[in-house]
Amino acid sequence: MGGEKAGAPAADGRISAFSAFHQLGSGVFINTEVTLQTALKEIHRPDHVTWIDARECDILGFAEAGHAKARLRESDATFTAIRSYKVAARYLDEPQGSVRDTIWFAQWDYEWNGQSVLCYKFRWIADHWAHQYYVVVTDQSNVVDGRCKYTEQLIKACGTWCDAIHDEIYVYEDGEWEKNKALFHAVSKASWDDVILSPSMKTEIVQDVESFFDSRSTYAEYNIPWKRGIILHGPPGCGKTISIKALMNSVRHKNVANLYVKSFRAGCHTDERSIREIFMKARAVSPALLVFEDLDSLVQDDVRSFFLNEVDGLEDNDGIFIIGSTNHIERLDTSITQRPSRFDRKFHFEPPSKQERLLYCQFWQQKLQTIPAIEITDEVCQAVADSTEGLTFAYLKEVFLQSLTMHLHAHAHSKGQGTSETEGLGSTQPKIPSSLESNSFYKMLQQNIKTVTEDLGSQEEVPINKIPRGTSDSPKMKVVRARRIYRTPG
């Protein structure tokens, strides 16, 4: 793109902003920012020119959110951008993706707070990094002691907006915090109504977390540091993750920031620096719910002391509630698990009891009640609960999902062939009560229960202390551990 002759001066002898930018990018330079700032000041003399770091203060995004108006001078032949195709985050939602511009040079008429100003955007690559800046040009009536009052107010308003959460959750990964909309949408669907735990433990967890954020004045009255931590532990598939999501969803309505840590690893700095940045962010946005999932994988021996120093709050940790989860609490050092004021309580998530399995079946009963071809009666729920002792919620979910898949295939096949939905289930059918002989979906459930149970039973029982650390998180080892430690003998 581009139509203005590069380097051509205007009638008054000055060159345009684009010409200055073009000349600078075409030759050897030492410091782009200083040189271009000098050129812009000359171009717009006697007006005031303010440079704004686009990474910290996205005034264009601020306008796109409806807080200002930005009219791009598209008729200006100097508009320079690279148009590219952006792959959809989810093809189901946006099968064709979208088109976006990476702007290298553009000009806007920018209107905010009743005043219209000229705004530029510049972008260039130097030292393998993209540098992006906005430039706001105002007249001298806004300038006091060399600073533009209008622009400073705009930066504060836009910076505050940029720092806020907008249907997002802070996620720490690859050495930096990012605002994650996908996790927010997943969390916003989580409800305690869908979490099946013993009523007493569910109540304790909810009260522990929610009452903390309601009790700042009480902590202050008793001169107690307003910080707390809990550990959720137990075998995979017993409700830890869904409980964390439900907690995150419930506290966000209390204006509590959710922060989720995926990893300490970063390509450009140490794990210690990552831990430092994580707690600095939590302190900055508190009150905050700070989540470390798979705590045993995150906190290795070489960073444990540094991590604990941050947890202990050598600096002010007021308003920070830490949740750590682990499938293997035995791997955590006792300095984490047995030291009050670090993680104050531990909640053990065990494989569900018969009553909890019954409630889970009733959850599916309600979920599928609008599908006439699938009969999940009270008797079916009770029978499934009776025959699934030792299975976690994850395995129960797999039983139902696999049965639904079988039902869909069988239903489609029977329409075309006129065969029974239960045909092809195999000859070694589990024993079916006479009252449920005609219930094809129950037969599928029992077949999948049998398959899952046999898979568990066929795993070699390896003592926990004999499992090589490098293979500890493999699917097979998780099954071994679940059976070895947690499954109740029949």
From TrEMBL:
Domain of life the protein comes from: Eukaryota
Biased composition (Polar residues): 416-432
GO cellular component: nucleus
Pfam families the record matches: AAA (PF00004)
TM region positions: none
Annotated stretches, region: Disordered: 412-432, 456-477
GO biological process entries: ribosome biogenesis
GO molecular function: ATP binding; ATP hydrolysis activity; preribosome binding; RNA binding
Residue stretches making up the AAA+ ATPase domain: 226-353
Record-given protein name: AAA+ ATPase domain-containing protein
